[in-house]
Amino acid sequence: MATIYEVSKLAGVSLATVSRVMNKTANVSQKTKLKVEKAMLDLGYKPNSVAISLASKRSDCVGILVTQLDGMFFGSMMNGIESELTKQRKHLVITAGHNVEHDERAGIDFLKSRNCDALIIHAEVLSDEYLIELSQGDTPIYILNRHIPEIAERCIHLDNQYGSYLATKHVIKAGHTEVLHISGPRYRKDAQERIIGFKQAMYEAGLPVNESHIFEGDYGHSGGAAAIDYFMQQRLSFTSIVCANDHLAVGAMARLRDFDKIPGEQIAIMGFDDMPFADCTYPKLTTIRYPIREMGKLAADYVLKDVYKVQQKIPPSSFEPTLVIRDSVLNLSK
Amino acid sequence: MATIYEVSKLAGVSLATVSRVMNKTANVSQKTKLKVEKAMLDLGYKPNSVAISLASKRSDCVGILVTQLDGMFFGSMMNGIESELTKQRKHLVITAGHNVEHDERAGIDFLKSRNCDALIIHAEVLSDEYLIELSQGDTPIYILNRHIPEIAERCIHLDNQYGSYLATKHVIKAGHTEVLHISGPRYRKDAQERIIGFKQAMYEAGLPVNESHIFEGDYGHSGGAAAIDYFMQQRLSFTSIVCANDHLAVGAMARLRDFDKIPGEQIAIMGFDDMPFADCTYPKLTTIRYPIREMGKLAADYVLKDVYKVQQKIPPSSFEPTLVIRDSVLNLSK
DNA sequence: TTGTAGGCGTTATCAT
DNA sequence: ATGATAACGCCTACAA
Question: Which part of the chain is the HTH lacI-type domain (chains A, B) (predicted)?
């Protein structure tokens, strides 16, 4: 790999001049500029971004912390971020936290040690205190899918509780009184919030909520299936299930059929997130739209504006969960 | 951020010694070692990996090029890679190529300029020649989902054509004679191969293949829906569709229902990839298993073994597409 | 407009 | 066992 030094030698100029034509940081005469550019081409010169980063203390990289690299949710989130950043030739470095405090911490440490210019964080288990402290460091951070009052201006989130409330209310409005909940892992904030929203709507309607009516799944298909197994084994009587995400809903629908219960007809199923496949299931999934891709984009736009000073048209953003009615929640009164 | 120099000052040793205790690269007396460790703790010292990378010419990072960050396929692939690498405290830097030559090139350039120790590449549009040349550079590369004879030892792939052949044959065996194909974008190698496999099985069975029986989709749900719209508009008579991936299949199944054609009963649907949701659709999707996660893991294992000299038990790997029979292809003869 | 030289935070090679 | 002191490849005042 050719270095800037070799380019300067070949072009017969100092290496400072080479640096200048690369960065357009000062005026360079047309003649020398051409000489330098030719030399770069001849040598196939590619700047070493590690050296640039060390010398300039910026990296043109923004670090992302997600829980895992697979799954539609994080896929959409990363895609949203990437699509915005790429436009401005910024790169992303991604680490996975795996729902484990150590990994989340290590991930953030790594991103910071790589001189990331900013961090976009989806942390599951890190404490609010830690994040607050982190926000006071020299690397700007933006927090996705979480609300921390002390640093609200850094948080892009959506009211999970209200979303779940909406979902449950829709089911109740459709005439259901025996409604169960399949939640996500309880140590996850969003899962907790969705449980609360569920309970809130139930209480409001004067419907009983028993802890045994809530199954703790894993946010994956298998969690939905396990929930059905559990509910059936408990011989619970129910006509509807509010699921904490679409994956759980899909898993539940499939397992329900194994028990000859037809989702959408005998059992109403409510999803959450409105993942891309939600309108391709059968029955099509009624769910709560969670615009994670747009939220990712917004986070990226903030970074672009705050850190890279690229003028961004940032829309007046307030993300609200909204009900998307499709076919999986039948109206009992009809 | 504290530097190694400050640590050395606080500990009263030279910075070389500090480097030694960090890297256990030479013997250090117990006493000074403790002094240094205390100093590091007191200062909350975190090594700057950019500086390490510049000085040592390694980064403990492996670069990944994928087409996009969302979608189950790439999710599984990244997850497989990450799960192996994380075990050995190696990180990954991910770039997206977007099916565009410029982006793929730029992605690779970026990864190399970041001093990545190795590259795992899923390139769509880069030429074989380019990749062959790249493989001769100083950064080891591993190529996923593609076969280039000249550098076969760097390629981890699977026989797409044979997989598609298997799929089509299964449908034919089930008694179908009017079978259509929904393909992926034709500029993609795997899509081309799957088309060939489809045609091969059809020819072998003496069944007619008309180019109008093949619809070029986008590998997403919408492509599947668009295909059905097209087929219906053409007033084609058909009882089965071989889809180039599961997303297309799911999209097609949903759209089929809009036309009151019941997938799995009136129309046989064959998928490809066996994505995690394939056993949660209704009807459950008969498909070809494409073990992309395992292939990602293998690529990571190669890197670990070849580049990082970490002993890996690498199984005698040859990935074969296999038929996964579920419920979406009905047997006409029964 | 162009060149010189110090610095970014480590590693690594010599000495001692 | 420990300490100087060059690299590493680039940026950036400061000079010229």
Answer: 2-56
Q: A92 is written with which tokens?
A: 């992303």
B259 touching A (Cβ < 8 Å): no
Residue pLDDT, tens place only, A279-298: 999 999 999 999 999 999 99
Cβ distance B282 to A79 less than 8 Å, yes or no, reads no
Q: Is the pLDDT of residue A64 over 70?
A: yes
pLDDT(B16) > 70:
yes
Rounded to a whole number of angstroms, the distance from the CA of A31 to the nearest CA of chain B is 28
> What residues of chain A lie within 8 A of the CB of B60, using their CB?
none
Give the domains, in start order, of chain A with CATH numbers. 4-56 (1.10.260.40), 61-159+292-319 (3.40.50.2300), 160-290 (3.40.50.2300)
Cα dihedral A203→A205→A211→A213 (10° resolution) = -170
Angle of helix A49-56 relative to helix B101-113, nearest 10 degrees?
60
Residue A178, number of CB atoms within 10 A of its CB: 14
- Is B28's CB less than 7 Å from nucleic acid strand C? no
- In whole angstroms, how far apart are CA A176 and each of A180, A237, A274, B37, B302? 10, 12, 22, 63, 55
Locus of tokens 């990944």 = B64
Q: Is the pLDDT assigned to residue B175 strictly greater than 80?
A: yes
Residues A12, A6: Cα–Cα separation, whole Å:
10
The pLDDT value given to residue B25: 80
